[in-house]
Write a structure and sequence with these properties.
Helix content: over 70%
Strand content: under 5%
Order of helices and strands: HHHHHHHHHHHEHEEHHEEHHHHHHHHH
Shape: globular
Distance between the termini: 58 Å
Number of strands: 5
Structural class: mainly alpha
Largest sheet: 3 strands, antiparallel
Radius of gyration: 24 Å
Length: 495
């Protein structure tokens, strides 16, 4: 039947597009970008004492300390948007002020280390920097506004709880642990920075493999390359990297799942495969008429040096238990995030096959209030787990979305899903929750407008004047709201 044939053809096209997008993602964005970031996040979780992060969030702590500390804790924890909610609940209920707690809630999913690294890798460093700066400024702004509006309720809660966070003794962190995490950061930078001395080949050679060009042609047919549509394609090197990634997954599942019980052969195999794969990913490999042309750039040597120092630090300076805990936390983070990423990227590929470019261009193709509100609305109704919003944003950009509304989407998406709103409401009460939602929507729209205006070439003087006017209007509105809400809080707000 013609209808059934058309339906099967559509399904086949959607699956093909999803698989192609996933293959390109695995080959291009996982190894030198996400893999080191997972290890950094695991190191921060395993090696940085919890008290060293949370002790600065008490309500009695000076604002110049508590709000930057709340943002820093959110970034260092590198938690996903689903994990941040119970952490936020614990911090809030144990004595953190409403302001620092809300800053923590906003900043962690909006601008954690994984999100920033991935945004820079997929979309560009300019948007990653704008996401960091504006998320920091507006995250602290949201916290300050919440603290001002609900100061009476916060004072009542302050009288009913102690100041445990401010009174906690400082927990130390060993120099070896700090150096270990720093080396992973250096490796991440070496793998992702686009500096000429890192990307230019130092040594070039050709391996005389036959039929490499037909191999690449076949891959181009299976996974098309079209920069205009955001289709990245898959190279011969990419296929090898996908195979290595699968091997890492098998070995890690056998060797890291029970790593707390001790090391075994699977553990050593997974670690060795990770090192080999990172080094291979740093090479420049392309098919030509003579075989496989291989360029060895500066990043290869930088990554090799970082891996050697990381290995030496882990063996000689860190306790065996700390290494085991680091590997377990990294593996746990991978299990939590990576499958969702794979599913999300697959869905993005299918969406790419059916979304018409004119839809995006019509709704958010210009940097207008309506366009930025559309970006915020996309964040509410098209929620995906943390990091999945980045390939979706890349798709929106390729389909014609202006970079201003794109930033508004990236700031709103991790915060304003319907399920998150319901959970926040259960923790702090409906009045606080919906005030927070309104502030996130307002600040995300303002951030998109400001960044979009800068992209469009608006003079800095005019942009600064507009931002100043926005702050004045907001301050007056907050003062008015604070006066209206200074009455004793309702029962629900003591949740």
């Amino acid at each position: 039947m013609p209808g059934m044939d058309a339906g099967f053809a559509l399904i086949a096209r959607l699956v093909e597009s999803g698989v192609g997008n996933l293959a390109a993602y695995l080959a291009a964005h996982v190894l030198l970008c996400l893999l080191p970031a997972f290890f950094i996040a695991g190191g921060m979780t395993a090696l940085i004492p919890k008290e060293a992060i949370t002790r600065f969030l008490g309500r009695s702590t000076r604002r110049t300390v508590s709000y930057p500390a709340a943002a820093a804790a959110g970034s260092l924890l590198a938690v996903c948007s689903c994990t941040i909610l119970p952490l936020f609940a614990g911090i809030y209920r144990k004595g953190a002020g409403i302001g620092p707690a809300m800053t923590f809630l906003f900043f962690a999913p909006a601008a954690n280390i994984l999100a920033l690294v991935y945004t820079s890798s997929v979309i560009g460093p300019d948007l990653a920097i704008a996401r960091l700066v504006l998320s920091l400024a507006f995250g602290i702004g949201i916290g300050l506004v919440m603290a001002l509006v609900f100061r009476a309720d916060d004072a009542a809660r302050d009288r009913s709880t102690d100041t445990m966070f401010a009174a906690q003794a400082e927990a130390g962190m060993s120099r070896a642990a700090l150096a270990f995490i720093g080396l992973w950061v250096l490796l991440l930078l070496a793998g992702t920075l686009k500096l000429s001395w890192l990307t230019s080949p130092v040594v070039e050679l050709t391996l005389p493999f036959a039929d490499t060009l037909p191999w690449q042609a076949a891959l181009d047919r299976l996974v098309p390359f079209d920069a205009a549509r955001g289709e990245e394609g898959v190279s011969v090197q990419g296929v090898v990297l996908i195979g290595l990634l699968a091997a890492i997954g098998v070995c890690a599942w056998r060797g890291l799942e029970n790593i707390l019980d001790g090391f075994d052969g699977w553990t050593r195999a997974s670690v060795a495969l990770i090192a080999v794969t990172l080094l291979f990913a740093s090479l420049v490999v392309r098919a030509d008429a003579h075989g496989l042309a291989i360029g060895v750039p500066g990043k290869f040597f930088a990554i090799a040096a970082c891996l050697a120092l990381i290995g030496a630090t882990a063996r000689r300076a860190l306790p065996r238990e700390d290494v085991q805990s680091w590997l377990w936390e990294s593996w746990r983070f991978v299990k939590q995030i990576f499958p969702l990423l794979v599913a999300g990227v697959f869905v993005v590929g299918m969406m790419r096959a059916v979304i018409r470019p004119e839809w995006i261009e019509t709704l958010a193709g210009r940097n207008t209030v309506t366009g930025n509100l559309a970006g915020v609305a996309f964040g509410v109704f098209m929620y995906f787990p943390t990091l999945v919003e980045v390939p979706i944003a890349k798709m929106f950009l390729d389909l014609g979305m202006h970079r201003g509304p794109l930033l508004a989407y990236l700031m709103a998406d991790p915060e304003l899903s319907l399920q998150s709103i319901l959970i926040i409401s259960a923790i702090v009460g409906r009045r606080k929750a919906w005030t927070y939602v309104g502030l996130v929507a307002l600040f995300s729209t303002a951030a998109g407008l400001a960044y979009g205006a800068w992209i469009d070439g608006t003079p800095l003087v005019a942009l600064a004047s507009a931002v100043a006017a926005f702050i004045v209007v907001l301050a007056l509105a907050v003062r008015r709201a604070g006066a209206m809400l200074s009455a004793p809080p309702r029962q629900e707000d003591h949740a």
